[in-house]
Amino acid sequence: MPPLHPKTMNDEGGAKAKPRKPKPATLSNSHALFNSTIRKPCLKQILFTFLLVLALYALFNAFFNPTLDTASSIFLSAGDTSVTYPAVKVYLYDLPTRFTYGVINHHSLARGGSRSAGDKSPLKYPGHQHMSEWYLFSDLTRPESERVGSPVVRVSNPEDAELFFVPFFSSLSLIVNPVRPAGSVPEKPPVYSDEENQEALVEWLERQEYWKKNNGRDHVFVASDPNAMYRVIDRVKNSVLLVSDFGRVRPDQGSLVKDIVVPYSHRIRTYPGGVSVDKRKTLLFFMGNRYRKEGGKIRDTLFQILENEKDVVVKHGAQSRESRRAASQGMHTSKFCLHPAGDTPSACRLFDAIVSLCIPVIVSDSIELPFEDTIDYRKIAVFVETASAIKPGYLVSKLRTFTSDRILEYQKELKEVKRYFEYDELDGAVNEIWRQVSKKLPLIKLMINRDKRLVKKEPDCSCICVNQTVLR
């Protein structure tokens, strides 16, 4: 059979067609060009290497050059030591002794203590529920090598300081003179005057160069007792105040915007055990003063409602060693611990409950709580509005609905966060307070710069002092 050759359009008759040279192929799109290129082994290798380098570069950037948002979230995470940030520089005022150890000495003398003029032994700060002033002061006086994880560093030159700490023992000063029974007449007037010491402190500060420089805005005071520094608070209200709540502070004197809520010093033993329901036989426990003023009047009503309920223990008790021992035993063996308002919205009992792993039941509509940017209190406490709590049977019925598993969940959360309320923990309350202080620095700088350019000063600080804490 003759070979078959397809004829072209130019074939004529039986003449043999002349072979035509193929034209160079021309691709009309980039996809075809890419396909033809990668057929060559050398180009394949180059492309693979390029893509690998690109992927490694992206991975490196993600881990070692985080975005601003990522860095901010790490900074706001309390206790995170994986990323280091510049510590805020704090200058500790070397106050005259009358405002620090002199207060401790007077407290001792008022209770029968004696101390010779030449006695150089250290004075011991007495235990009470507002000891944050002592812990912060003693923290700054320790060597930097012992201040592990602290967000602030002490500087010796005030020119280098960003903040100035005033270590006046304002809460201890308030209780130097023992409380006298109502109607009693003192044998002689007290030697010590808290009001005079407050006035003397502010007069001393107002003569200092660095107070006058920024009108005290970059200064920090501890006033954790609700009545601390009440005589002079209008003269220091520009400063950062460390308070237990705002119950005795006017909106133009303090607020969450510029000030910091700090925990009370718990007065009972920390619970040494783990989470458990079986070992906690009491449903609800409370031990404290039954009769209080202002918002604390609810206590008497709650006593009347709860004192005959099954598995509920409510006792009247004042601050004493025996009362603390009984309270420790009660809180350590109860599932829930009642926290009604006292003379002000907060009280030491809340923090006693937290370190006891006893779930706080908070009946205080205007309460402000420490470290709420770090701690979600809904996970560790039960909140009950006052109007509901005083309905007979409501509170106990609500608590009985909690299953054992739910109670254990609360206890696990309490165990996780209780270090924030321990002042002697390595990375506990002291470091967290300093973190909160350091976060105020941008606002402080803003207000300082704003003050310098304003022609007319506002008569009050309403632009930053908005204190609306009551539930609506």
From TrEMBL:
<dbReference type="GO" id="GO:0016757">
    <property type="term" value="F:glycosyltransferase activity"/>
</dbReference>
<keyword id="KW-0333">Golgi apparatus</keyword>
<keyword id="KW-0812">Transmembrane</keyword>
<protein>
    <recommendedName>
        <fullName>Exostosin GT47 domain-containing protein</fullName>
    </recommendedName>
</protein>
<keyword id="KW-1133">Transmembrane helix</keyword>
<keyword id="KW-0472">Membrane</keyword>
<dbReference type="Pfam" id="PF03016">
    <property type="entry name" value="Exostosin_GT47"/>
</dbReference>
<keyword id="KW-0328">Glycosyltransferase</keyword>
<keyword id="KW-0808">Transferase</keyword>
<feature type="region of interest" description="Disordered">
    <location>
        <begin position="1"/>
        <end position="28"/>
    </location>
</feature>
<feature type="transmembrane region" description="Helical">
    <location>
        <begin position="46"/>
        <end position="64"/>
    </location>
</feature>
<keyword id="KW-0735">Signal-anchor</keyword>
<dbReference type="InterPro" id="IPR040911">
    <property type="entry name" value="Exostosin_GT47"/>
</dbReference>
<dbReference type="InterPro" id="IPR004263">
    <property type="entry name" value="Exostosin"/>
</dbReference>
<comment type="similarity">
    <text>Belongs to the glycosyltransferase 47 family.</text>
</comment>
<feature type="domain" description="Exostosin GT47">
    <location>
        <begin position="87"/>
        <end position="398"/>
    </location>
</feature>
<dbReference type="GO" id="GO:0000139">
    <property type="term" value="C:Golgi membrane"/>
</dbReference>
